[in-house]
Amino acid sequence: MSKAHLSPAQLDAFQRELDALRAEVAGDIGQRDAEHIRGVVASARAHAVAGRSLLMFGFDPLSFAAGVLALAKAKILENMEIGHNVLHGQYDWMGDPTLNSQTYEWDIVCASRDWRKTHNVEHHNHTNILGKDDDYGYGLLRMTGEQRWTWRTPLQPLSYLLLALLFQWGVAIQDLKLGRWFKGRMQPGELRQRAAPFLRKARGQLFKDYLLFPLLAFWNWPRVLAGNALANLIRNLWTNAIIFCGHFTLDAQVYSKAEVADESRGAWYLRQIQGSGNLEGGRWLHLLSGHLSHQIEHHLFPDIPAPRYTEMAPRVREICARYGVRYNSAGFWRQYLGVLWRILRHALPLDRRPAGLAPATHAEA
Amino acid sequence: MQIQGQTQPKPLARWLRSRWLHPLNDAVAWEQMLCAINPMWSRRDYPARVLAVIDETADTRSLWLQPVARWPGHRAGQHVVVEVEIDGRRLHRSFSLSSAPTADGRVRITLKRQPGARVSAWIQQLRAGDVLRLSAPQGDFLAPADDAPLLLIGAGSGITPLMAMVEELRAGGRHAPLVLVHICRNEEDFIFGARLRELASRWPAFDLRVHFSAVAGRPDAVALTRLLAGTGHCEARVCGPRALVAAVESLYRAAGVAGRVRSESYRGRVLPAADGAASAHAVHCTNTERVFTAGADTSLLQAAEAAGLQPAHGCRIGICMSCQCRKRSGSVLNLRTGERSSEPDELIQLCVSVAQSPLELAL
Question: Inter-chain contact B315–A125, Cβ cutoff 8 Å?
């Protein structure tokens, strides 16, 4: 599927329509959105208390399974629907310091400050631009023929599996730019400085799940330890799957730096749509994915409260249809299998493009 | 033997607050749970329950409030910041306390409905039993402690802190002369008029002088001098619009006793947004005490950087929120969304906002 090419005049009209949609929804933001996010915060806390209690006080396998699932759900809600969206500034308008993008600290090993930089500034600005968007393959995976193939690339199904299992750690060390350090292009002092917030955060997270709560359970500690590890694992696998479906499905486009030089705002919108992919499903899918199931709407309007994406999606789709822009949307399994296929396919030295496009593995600082 | 725990927080309390115990000691979570049961149990700020609502004039209403017992208590002339939540947004406004301190801790705020002032209108429609949040009492707009002649000058709703002072002085059994000059439109507009007239009739030391501007016009310098006749530039407290405060201050300055006036001026109304004006506006950074100018064609971020400031920033196209900043006052236009921010204390994005009026930013 190739990219849509709109004339500058069409791009301007396209931008005006999307801006008008944003303005309409932004004008309606209020009580309903505040109640939603507070409700999710309460729900995540209730799931955490229930999950940790079941693990701590139960003895049987059934309550173990229920405890793990409840704790995993608590962690997923906090990570996706609360943390991700609050850190985007979606609820800053409420004036509630506990839901403010500049002060919120989410419950994963990645320090909020690092993530705001790698995600909000770098990824959302340079979405799917090879060499500028570090999220594209995470400097680890070759997801398109335009990225360079090296002797390590055939191992990428394995490295993807590791990344999926340890996803929160992968996200956490992204801003350390370890690639530069390995190549000797970073002083140890700079690395120490970059790593400090991450190390502080990771220490607290490890202490909580693998020391504090197991100790509180006395003789039940192995059960709590295992339960916490499993809940973290489930959260890692789920968030990884959702996030990979966002930009690496079969129809998601990539861009070269030359293509986006002097990009208009309309072209920026177009790139956000063509570089993203949506997941279709029920309300639970949208909530547990932090509404990243509406990745297209999220990339167009990252600061609009996420539940609004559901009502915006049909209208974005309709606008795209009128301009002949492909709107990439399908069910979870179809999209995720597409992601896995891309990982496998590009592990082989097929589809190698001639030189001319900057290889993404040479990410520039 | 040394007494421990006097200067430093107790080791136990420090340990309980330690980050290592998170999430067990998550103060926010506990607070929100308590609030869900009863909003008066909150430990954040000082919740206060509305006891009674009283109409003072056609557009002015008083609310008697009962703050939680740990509220520090105020002195006449002080104000509180009131927090309300309207349509999901937390908003803060300052209001003078219009009552003298009482034994049971009840306080009164008195609000006049102003066109375009959403918060006052919202508070006015509260009923007995509703809860709002107060800050600790603030401000040093107090009556002097000595028993010397005192002059109080208020205009419109500027009477509120002065009313508290009058009641406090009355309760203290004052005998020294107390002059209250009040300026308002007409008799119907005279807040606390009945109560003040009754006090004046029974309290020989209290001299009430009222100026109705609907009849006599806005008091000019001559009229003001006449209203203040015989007060001999004694210690004065003024509360009202900036113009009135400035007029009284210049009278005292001319007499060489500028130090005897203490004033409080309510913040100007919402500033009208200038449309299409290509003029530059002064931007006052309240944290760094820096001032720069920003035109209507450059973003505040660019203007600040051109002036040598280095505000935090990220994408520069309005999506990452890194440059978000609290606007204390003034009006800005967000070029990306077309939204206008003209209420005080709103968050704005520097990289896509242009000044539409003089601004105060928390930079």
Answer: yes
